[in-house]
Design a protein that fits this description.
Structural class: mainly alpha
CATH topology: Arc Repressor Mutant, subunit A
GO molecular function: DNA-binding transcription factor activity
Pfam families: MarR_2
Radius of gyration: 19 Å
Number of strands: 2
Number of domains: 1
InterPro entries: ArsR-like_HTH, HTH_MarR-typ, MarR/SlyA-like, WH-like_DNA-bd_sf, WH_DNA-bd_sf
Protein name: MarR family transcriptional regulator
Shape: globular
CATH class: Mainly Alpha
Order of helices and strands: HHHHEEHH
CATH architecture: Orthogonal Bundle
Distance between the termini: 42 Å
Length: 156
């Protein structure tokens, strides 16, 4: 094969990747959402899960959450209000900023986070069956190289 044919072939492969990756991501979000609902957390949407991703590693302010989700502070505050009403998060005083409040997961929020982790593991089991464990590890390593931030945020 010549260089022009190799280049055309790689462009075709490259052009086919975005819809496949986006479709796989969409399927994964739907599977996790269904798994969370099946585990008794029926009052949440996938956007809440993206918020929990930011809250789980450590407490955050509404501003931190807004930046993570790519929404306004007002929209993030409305989401926090909803999650407080549903018992998933609570607001606490900020230890160093009297004007700010921290948003923290409650026990119910942590239970939901564990349910989402279980649902995510369940959702990728077919990938391991299809690819085999060695190729699945290679895929993970490839994705780490390609998406080093590992940032999970919804795209609206």
């Amino acid at each position: 094969m010549n260089d022009a044919a190799d280049h055309a072939g790689s462009e075709t492969v490259a052009a086919s990747l975005p819809p496949l990756i986006l479709g796989l991501a969409s399927d994964l979000v739907r599977a996790i959402d269904a798994g969370v609902h099946a585990r008794g957390f029926e009052d949440l949407r996938p956007a809440h899960g993206f918020a929990f991703v930011r809250l789980a590693p450590g407490d955050a302010t509404v501003g931190d959450l807004a930046e993570h989700l790519g929404v306004t502070k007002q929209a993030a505050s409305q989401m926090v209000d909803e999650l407080v009403r549903k018992g998933y998060v609570e607001r606490r005083p900020h230890p160093t900023d009297a004007r700010a409040r921290l948003v923290v997961l409650t026990e119910r929020g942590w239970a939901c986070t564990r349910a989402a982790d279980e649902a995510a593991a369940e959702a990728v089991r077919p990938w391991a069956a299809a690819l085999g464990d060695p190729r699945l590890r290679e895929l993970r390593d490839d994705l780490v190289r390609l998406a080093p931030s590992g940032r999970l945020r919804p795209i609206w």
